């Protein structure tokens, strides 16, 4: 590839776009990211937008591949188990994996800022306030709105890492033949709430755990933050008896929390203000194919495969995209037509599998984790794994603590389920 052909454009400086840019830069490309938003390192993160993410092995592998895992570890809190809170406020807990295995709570905002710093250290140029408005795919041109002015950028290759509502993907829908696309919304949405820190930034609940209040049709979860607070997310139906629609006043909200989450409301006395002040998000699964146009355009991360968050894998899966792409660059040099084609065919079955697993895990989290049968099953599985580690790895561990392809994990999980039902 000649020097002028080394120019790579990435749409979106989110989690995947930032990581991808570092991989590309380390391989000698001139990388420019165009990001719709302002530089979040210079702005404060607004309330209700402070999503906390669980990082697990696939994510760490992606970060390690460019040597930035140490900077991220500094801002991550290990959680080695989930703690279930029942309606009486009684607790049960379940270890996620083997001793020493954890998932890691990280603030999306902090993580994204650290990753943009690392990208810039690697020589990546990030252009903020640039919203992609269209692509001329044949001519490798991306168009942006920059404070009302139209800007055009020509490059060798465009990556669309612009999230679940991707402009790059929309362009593929509009301008390529036989592009398959579906988006499916859950009947549940989500709302972020905050449990503040105690005195001297102390944690008011166990710090090294993901807390769950499973209530059948809905649930509340909480992940720890570095400052002693917890970010809670209420996953709740839009309509119905207990739902966003049924809670109309602050009194409705307080009554509801006192009835179903009594130990949580004691820790967030201003819950009603937060409930009405913070936005309600929707939960979408996006499937599409193809992900690439020749050697010109490639969808990656949520732009290619947005999933619901119940396995904590959306970002991890996007980081794994970067690992796989890097392995293909190693294998095929700069033969981008081959790299991109192999990339989409190897990743698509796996992103479909994790999309399915993520929806399945919603039922497990909001319902089953609270039951004695479920906890017994988990104990039996852990025993079998201890005795036959080569033959039985629980599904959760395959997804979270390994890089077994998601499609293989899903198939293994189905077999295990049959066996456990008989047991
Ligand atoms: C409630 C919730 C909880 C979650 N929890 C987890 C978890 O625990 N673990 C996990 O692994 N994943 C989790 N996820 C999923 C995770 O957030 C996503 O998978 C991840 O953010 C995808 O990264 P991305 O870079 O592909 O997209 P995004 O993070 O959405 O980044 C896209 C970027 O593109 C920019 N952009 C958008 N449009 C344009 C445009 N037209 N022009 C220029 N720039 C544009 C955006 O501003 C943004 O910066 C969760 C998601 C939700 C909603």
Report what the structure shows.
The protein has 423 residues and is of the alpha/beta class. It folds into 3 domains: 3-77 and 107-183 and 284-362, FAD/NAD(P)-binding domain; 188-282; 369-422, no CATH class. The chain is built from 14 helices and 19 strands. The strands form 4 sheets. A 7-stranded mixed sheet has the order 6-5-14-15-16-13-17. It has a 6-stranded mixed sheet with strand order 8-2-1-12-19-18, sandwiched between helices. Strands 3-7-4 form a 3-stranded antiparallel sheet. Strand 14 (209-214) and strand 15 (219-224) form a beta hairpin. Helix 1 runs parallel beside helix 4 (108-121), helix 6 packs across helix 8 and helix 11 (336-366) runs parallel beside helix 14 (406-422). It is globular and about 65 Å long. Bound molecules: flavin-adenine dinucleotide. Flavin-adenine dinucleotide is lined by residues 11-17, 34-37, 51, 53-54, 131-132, 161-163, 167, 190, 233, 281, 301-303, 309, 312-316, 318.
The CATH architecture of the largest domain can be named as 3-Layer(bba) Sandwich
User: What's the alpha carbon Rg, rounded to whole Å?
Assistant: 22 Å
Strands ordered across the widest β-sheet: 6-5-14-15-16-13-17
**Mean pLDDT across residues:** 94
> How many angstroms does the end-to-end distance come to?
58 Å
Q: Given this structure, which CATH class of the largest domain is correct?
A: Alpha Beta
Shape annotation: globular
Largest sheet: 7 strands, mixed
Q: What is the SS-derived class?
A: alpha/beta
Q: How many distinct domains?
A: 3
CATH-assigned fold name of the largest domain: FAD/NAD(P)-binding domain
Poorly predicted spans: none
In helices, the fraction of residues equals 25-40%
Give me the number of helical elements. 14
**Which hetero ligands occur in this complex?**
flavin-adenine dinucleotide
What percentage of the residues does DSSP assign to strands (E)?
25-35%
Total beta strand runs: 19
CATH superfamily of the largest domain: FAD/NAD(P)-binding domain
